[in-house]
Design brief:
alpha+beta, about 40% strand, about 190 residues, 8 strands, 6-stranded antiparallel β-barrel
Length: about 190
């Protein structure tokens, strides 16, 4: 597997951020059925291959009707210490316990007990009913909720805005026939 140059640059930015939690936070932009933009923060979970990353989400949230309507999306990933912003554009494939039980079970088991607890909470965006029904930790034996989803984001376009120095640098990588080409843009 050949790692594209943009991934090498992204990896260097990640290393510069260290263990800071916010270095794993990405902003996912989608389009609603009525054409209005939506953006939310998710946690980067890892790479599936050289140009496909994973996120986890709750199928009861609004983003799923948006992704079913329009699976193309964009991620903005800011690395504050590195002074670099990556904009990743691509298509999201949704995996659930019924469509890919093996991948979902592995992902579920890799979550911490605290991380699994989020999927036992009431439906996201519904009226708040109190914390009595919200677990803090969920043990290893808890079954995968039916609404647990893996979002696999296949990247086809990457922009890097490097904010270091007097003159910012902006690079664009696009993929065609498994080949990435690089172009420098005005910042």
């Amino acid at each position: 597997m050949t790692i594209p140059i943009w991934r090498q640059r992204l990896r260097a930015a990640q290393k510069r951020e260290g263990a800071a939690a916010q270095a794993r936070w990405v902003q996912l932009a989608t389009v609603s059925k009525n054409g209005s933009p939506r953006v939310r923060t998710l946690v980067f979970r890892g790479w599936v291959d050289e140009a496909q990353l994973e996120l986890f989400s709750d199928a009861r949230s609004h983003k799923f009707s948006e992704l079913n309507h329009q699976p193309e999306a964009e991620i903005c990933w800011l690395f504050a210490k590195a002074k670099q912003q990556f904009r990743l554009r691509g298509v999201i494939e949704i995996l659930g316990p019924r469509s890919d039980s093996k991948a979902c079970l592995q992902a579920w088991n890799n979550l911490t007990p605290r991380g699994r607890a989020v999927w036992t909470w009431p439906q996201p965006g519904s009226p708040f009913i109190g914390t009595d029904s919200m677990a803090i930790n969920v043990d290893d034996n808890h079954p995968i909720p039916d609404h647990f989803r893996i979002l696999r984001f296949a990247i086809g376009r990457v922009e890097l805005l490097d904010l270091k120095g007097d003159f910012h640098q902006r690079l664009l990588w696009t993929q065609s026939n498994q080949i990435w080409t690089e172009e420098r843009l005005n910042p």
